[in-house]
Amino acid sequence: KSSLKPCHRRPRIEAAGRGVRFAASVLAAARWGAAQVLACHGARGPAEASVSFVTGPRMRALNRRFRGIDRVTDVLSFPLGEMVEGRCHAGDVVICLARARNQADGAGHSLKREVLLLAVHGTLHLLGFEHHGRPAEPMRKAESLILARWDGQAR
Known about the structure:
alpha/beta, 5 helices
């Protein structure tokens, strides 16, 4: 049994790709995952976030600039928590599609599922969930519950 709160609110998720190609179903998975996090764990009122897909070189540049780590990573989160047009803008999630493809192949599941996992993971970071230097259990539990909800639906 899931301990997620019912998701009655409909968060707005902006999603786009820059220099990458992907199927509409991959975009839909990212939107669904980010929306589930915001609706079940986010602000009490209307909320939004953005999810962007970038190339490996672009992700490396972002990781170097914002984290001081000169390598490609799978997902970066940039929390904002600001009010924009009456909605809480949680922030921006950036996903490296090439890295997501490699991780999906390595894990033996679809790119759509990997992007879903990364969107959920990144959006949880926007809301303050952590797994580095703190107990990771709350974040892992939230991820597992949302993935179970995805698996329980016809996708």
